[in-house]
Design a protein that fits this description.
The structure holds two protein chains of two kinds.
Chain A (H helix, E strand, L loop, with lengths): L2 H7 L3 H9 L5 H19 L2 E4 L1 H16 L11 E5 L26 H8 L3 E6 L33 H8 L5 E5 L6 H7 L2 E4 L20 E5 L2 H11 L17 H4 L8 E4 L10 H16 L3 E4 L5 H26 L6 H9 L5 H21 L5 E5 L25 H6 L3 E8 L5 E8 L4 H14 L10
Parallel strand pairs in A: 2-3, 2-4, 7-8, 7-9
Antiparallel strand pairs in A: 1-3, 4-6, 5-6, 5-10, 9-11, 10-11
Helix pairs in contact in A: 1-3, 3-4, 6-7, 8-15, 11-12, 11-13
Chain B lengths: L8 H8 L8 H17 L22
Classes of the chains: A alpha/beta, B mainly alpha.
Chain lengths: 466, 63
């Protein structure tokens, strides 16, 4: 690749948007740079499962024509985006990384995809995922599993595995993921991108393969917090076709990333992780706290409900709902699932209605208790991960949730927004990350603190070499 | 939760036969381990609720 093309693929969405607005960059040149980079390096990380080059080039030409005539569609006009392969795309294969949907071509776009296209985004293609956003990566699936671009001997996290890997490897400027128990934040953290699980109900799930109705959340991953905010500006909004969709007021998330955070009060959930992080992660967390204090935020330790409470509550609900969604295919064609996915979907058949409802009642209690603990604070701060990602060649345990509790799950249980922010790199060169959780529908404060942290640290200057 | 003790593999096999799922011997062994682990963790979930404690899925007739 030429230096010019390489420089284009590492621009932020905000920078590329400014250059295009000034007529110094075309969407076509940008799309061509990304397509060339995908051709050159994606075979090393297998982040794309379907490339839609012709459509991307046509969308880029359309964007250039519109911009040359003074029509601007917003912050994603002409911006190359990838989609987790559970987002339905009109006329384009949508597999869920599963043999069960190997030939599925939807006739309608998911609402989020419609919004992205209406905003002028250039869709480059579909990205690898854990099967149906739940299973582990196993060799019995139709596409190779994605690898971590920082070290291909490691997994990129999941389930939005291709989304995290592609953004970090500069194969797209932003990507769509989904987060039911951490599936945006997990790959964002392990791949050093930013990623936000919005408040449950803020972004439509219509046209996205479901995993667990009461937990599923759609959201973006991008290299910077500001770019996440710009994507959310396009994605957020009421959708009558999503039962959980909320009529929340319109907010300028992009502008919120420039808000000062002096005086912002942050509750540090130290009891969730004390003594259990790797040395690198513990150091990264401590330093992140110092950086936020240096920016004027007040960071204080607050005791929240036990991390295991959120973890098991979420796991019971997700296990039962995922079984209900996939029950028919688990009965009729179990051999078509990956061996891990199949068992995870089967397990819900053994849980009773009473057990499910107790977990749902427990969810409300945890939501109320979390809100009470957060009183007087704007944000919750916690680590994003315990340590490094899993080694690529080591298959994930079938019931992985019996090991350590998920640090992501609290915000899935409560429905609050949560942002993953890179906070450096460990001695092994692998990324470290923390989370900022906000009050429901207060993504603006989450973005403000995340962006202030990024501006004060050098981590956005480092990219993986492939 | 009603169930405090995990079922034995034999008990679990009998229950598996009632689920309607076509399960291999290997499936049942994996699922038994997963279920036993889940039951142990579920001890954290309160067993007694006020009878009127409504779960958050509230049906609204006007929607």
């Amino acid at each position: 690749m030429s230096n010019r093309a390489s420089e284009l693929t590492t621009l932020s969405i905000a920078e590329a948007g400014s250059l295009m607005a000034r007529g110094e960059l075309t969407a076509t040149a940008l799309a061509e740079a990304f397509l060339a980079r995908i051709a050159a390096v994606d075979h090393k990380i297998a982040s794309f499962v379907t490339l839609t080059a012709d459509r991307a080039q046509a969308a880029a030409r359309q964007a250039d024509m519109e911009m040359s005539q003074g029509l601007t569609r917003g912050p994603l006009h002409g911006i190359p985006i990838g989609l987790k392969d559970i987002y339905e795309t009109e006329g384009v294969l949508t597999t869920g990384h599963s043999h069960l949907r190997a030939d599925y071509v939807p006739s309608v776009d998911a609402e989020t995809v419609r919004r992205l296209k209406a905003g002028g985004a250039v869709i480059l293609g579909k990205l690898a995922t854990h099967e149906f956003a739940n299973g582990a990566m196993t060799p019995d699936q139709p596409f190779p599993p994605a690898r971590n671009p920082w070290n291909t001997d490691y997994q990129p996290g999941g389930s939005s595995s291709g989304s995290g890997a592609a953004v970090a490897a500069a194969l797209c400027m932003g990507a769509m993921g989904s987060d039911t128990g951490g599936s945006i934040r997990n790959p964002a953290g392990f791949c050093a991108t930013a990623g936000i699980k919005p408040t449950y109900g803020l972004v439509s799930r219509c046209g996205i393969f479901p995993l667990s109705f009461s937990f599923d959340t759609a959201g973006p991953l991008a290299w910077t917090v500001e770019d996440n905010a710009l994507m959310l500006d396009v994605l957020a909004g009421y959708d009558p076709n999503d039962q959980a969709s909320a009529k929340a007021p319109k907010v300028d998330y992009g502008a919120s990333t420039h808000r000062p955070i002096k005086g912002m009060r942050i509750a540090l959930a130290r009891t969730w992780y004390e003594g259990n992080l790797t040395a690198d992660m513990a150091k990264g967390m401590d330093e992140a706290v110092h950086v936020l204090r240096d920016q004027g935020a007040v960071v204080e330790e607050v005791v929240f409900p036990d991390i295991w409470d959120y973890h098991i509550c979420g796991r019971v609900v997700i296990t039962v709902e995922a079984h209900a969604i996939h029950r028919q295919e688990v009965i009729e064609t179990p051999e078509k699932f990956g061996y891990t996915t199949r068992r995870r979907f089967q397990l819900g058949a053994f849980l009773s209605a009473e057990q499910y409802l107790s977990a749902v009642r427990f969810r409300r209690k945890l939501q109320v208790d979390t809100r009470a603990a957060m009183r007087g604070y704007d944000l919750i701060m916690a680590p994003n991960q315990w340590g490094p990602p899993e080694i690529f060649e080591e298959p994930q345990e079938i019931f992985h949730f019996l090991g350590k509790p998920s640090l992501s799950m609290p915000f899935n249980v409560t429905g609050q927004p949560a942002l993953t922010v890179c906070c450096g790199f460990g001695s092994d060169g692998l990324p470290l990350a923390f989370q900022l959780g906000g009050r429901p529908f207060d993504e603006a404060s989450v973005f403000a603190a995340g962006a202030a942290y990024e501006r004060a640290t050098p981590w956005r200057l480092r990219r993986p070499t492939l | 939760m009603t169930e405090k003790k995990p079922p034995t593999l034999e008990e679990f096999r009998a229950r598996a036969a009632l689920t309607g799922l076509p399960l291999t011997t290997e499936d049942i062994e994996h699922l038994h381990k997963g279920y036993a682990g889940l039951i142990a963790l579920m001890e954290r979930i309160p067993t007694r609720w006020a009878w009127a404690a409504e779960p958050p899925h509230v049906f609204r007739a006007d929607e």
